[in-house]
Amino acid sequence: MQTKTADPRCRITLGKEFANKTFLFEKTSDNEMKLELAAVIPQKELWLYQNRGARKAVAEAIERLRAGQFDQSPPDVDREESWMEELED
Residue 45 carries which DSSP code? Predict the structure, then answer.
């Protein structure tokens, strides 16, 4: 455990390994707090992380691409468009 002192503007340095990182901050009591490294998801992409089926489909597509498995026929735009209309914004 290290001792850190807040500067006059209430800032504490964490060290270079934490530069440009995002944290969740929780005040757990009057004399204690918790910092946890966090990742931020853009609001418009949040649906993907909340939709297990969509996440699975994307993961499977990425695996097929990594394996060099590409569709030989062009996409069915009408079918894809109807599927996309079913998704919530």
Answer: G
